[in-house]
Amino acid sequence: DGLVVSEKVKCNDIDVKIPESELEAEEKGAEEERPRESDSTILDVSSDYPRDKHISIQRHLADLEKLADLREDEKKPCPLCPEDKFKACYSHKLHRHLQNLHWKVSVEFEGYRMCICHLSCRPVKPNLVGDQTLSKMGAHYHCIICSATIVRRTDMIGHINRHVNKGETESRFITVRAPKSSYKVVKESATDVQVLPNHSTPQKTDSYFNPKMKLNRQLIFCALAVLAGERKPIECLDAFGATGIMGLQWAKHLRSSVKVTINDCNENSVTMIKENCHLNKMKVKLNIREKDNDETVGNGEENSDTIEVTKMDANVVMHLRSFDFIHLDPFGSSVNYLDSAFRNVRNLGIVSVTSTDISSLYAKAQHVALRHYGCNIVRTEYYKELAARTIIAAVTRAAARCNKGIEVLLAVALEHFVLVVVRVLRGPTPADDSAKKVRYLIHCQWCEERVFQKEGNMVEENPYQQLPCDCYGSMPGKTAVLLGPLWSGALFNTGFLRRMLLEAVQYGLDEAQSLLKTLVCEAECTTPKHFSTHSPGDENKQEECGVYIRTPNTSAESYLVHGKRKSEEVLRSTAKRQRPEHSAEHPPFYYNIHRHSIKGMNMPKLNKFLNYLSEAGFRVSRTHFDPMGVRTNAPLAQFKTVLMKYSTPTYVGAQAEGPVHLPGEIHVGEEVPAATVIKVQEAELAQDDKAGVATAVFTQSYPTHCAAD
């Protein structure tokens, strides 16, 4: 693809033999310069690399002139131009030519200069006539890393930058690790990892590292720490390692409680994971296939400081081996890996799924959600919880195909990701119970009221009757849509969240502590002022798949004998005894107080409004899905009634917050019929008109300067 510097240089159809004495002198000089060059250049080259590069790639201008001095002609031709373009001349003219036409327009790459080349390496596209195709050749650059020839200088600079970002630093497209000088060391939770300069761009790097996902990694670590306290040791898998930071945090903090396996299908990522293991003083255990072709790292012994690194497809490694804890965090949707994850996961193990396809889950690309998850969704006020229930429904169906059921331990939906953590229950009975909780949701598009469809296969004559609102009778046309199928069960496990909070406090995970406190309040449907770190009464009522069942007369450790679970008969009897406690499950979905605010009225403060709802006899809490959201078991009509009662008119700015008399003597806490809700809405409109008239009268009755004061 280009001319090569060798013992016999061929240029312009002239074969020139180089004296052996000059070659020996050059080789000795090159050997003396290599140790000094290795410190300054980022190229990871072998000892014979200078012999493989094109002659247009040199370190100094004198090197180009030296190539011309090797010729036997009296007049020296340019080594980078054909004879018809630049005829042979004397040394002073050749020096100006090389300096102005080749050296000044070169591209520098850490000590090397890629000069422009006019030789017959790259043919020009034929013109309309087509008679000069063979005679005219285009000027171009030769890449120092690969064999590409590029015409423009700006394109050549971008081409080199892409090589550096991808870690390709050897010739002939051999993909190797990036040089250490281009690495950046990032520290998180006492764990150091090396990342590439473009680590935050997943499309352009093999080792993606997102600092914004720190909270996600902390939540997963807390869940694994809770599982490690139940049984030891546990085998855990990070199916998409990238830099390996998550698996390194597991092994570094939990030590002998876990056996960590970090997997990635990319060779560059696997190499970086191994280097990060050595950076954190961890030994690497290679699998059987890699031991034959790769060097053994460490002594191969299984101890607390050993991490197993595999290079396989995530589906393959989950099919071949069994794990107690599996974490899936692919780029985008994780539905392609759910079947493999539930195939060999052990009983009472945990599967955590992180999904970053936010556009489809948050109903911005509804057709993608239908294609990936088989779910019909629209943009609603509770769209984040809708996304979490969509993923759990897909997880439930994947587990049921493997005769396994699930219990949702945690569901978090934030700006950048949706995290779902479930516990696996082996057997057809738990699978059937979980599958029954996947239902359709009836959503009113006028008032945003929602309700899950009733169980059963019989077709109802009027499904609108299931909605508490009367929008279908008062509004023209169809007012509701059918969303789903969605998960209709609980999203949180209070006992598991409390133990996660204790682990977060123990390991000093500050960001996770505040979120876990909110999740505990949301799971219990209580306000933060009633929150307490130690709640023995609630823990005694909590059942977690038979692993930790706390009752007033028994302790948690009595049901775990040397890592063995309780028998199925005792589990069933305990579940029957605790079945009435499931009525205290947190209510599904939430209302946004701003969405349902009354026009012309000042809303009460959110914390005060929570107290008003609680005094009215409803369960109420805040939610992490929406900072202005209220999770309550109150119907929307009662929600609006309480909101209207404790709102103040906007034109009475100095008036303190207090109750507003409702039309028809409506009392908070009573059942509000749909017709009354319509009257309340009409009263709101009438009150808005009165407010407008009062404002106009107030403006006309005072002079302009008084109003300004």
Number of strands: 27
Silhouette: elongated
The number of helical elements comes to 23
The largest sheet is:
8 strands, mixed
Provide the CATH topology of the domain at 184-288 and 304-455 and 462-494. Answer: Rossmann fold
What percentage of residues falls in helices of 4 or more residues? 25-40%
* Class derived from helix and strand content: alpha+beta
Mean pLDDT: 76
> Could you tell me the radius of gyration in angstroms?
35 Å
Superfamily at the CATH H level of the domain at 184-288 and 304-455 and 462-494? Answer: Vaccinia Virus protein VP39
Alpha-carbon distance between the two ends: 83 Å
> Which CATH architecture of the domain at 184-288 and 304-455 and 462-494 would you pick?
3-Layer(aba) Sandwich
Strand order of the largest sheet: 12-13-11-10-14-15-17-16
Give unreliable regions as ranges.
Answer: 1-51, 125-136, 171-178, 290-301, 536-542, 545-583, 653-657, 662-680, 687-709
Beta percentage is 15-25%
Query: Which CATH C-level class of the domain at 184-288 and 304-455 and 462-494 is it?
Result: Alpha Beta
Pfam families: TRM
Catalytic activity: guanosine(27) in tRNA(Tyr) + 2 S-adenosyl-L-methionine = N(2)-dimethylguanosine(27) in tRNA(Tyr) + 2 S-adenosyl-L-homocysteine + 2 H(+)
Domain C2H2-type: 143-163
Keywords: Isopeptide bond, Metal-binding, Methyltransferase, Nucleus, Phosphoprotein, RNA-binding, S-adenosyl-L-methionine, Transferase, tRNA processing, tRNA-binding, Ubl conjugation, Zinc, Zinc-finger
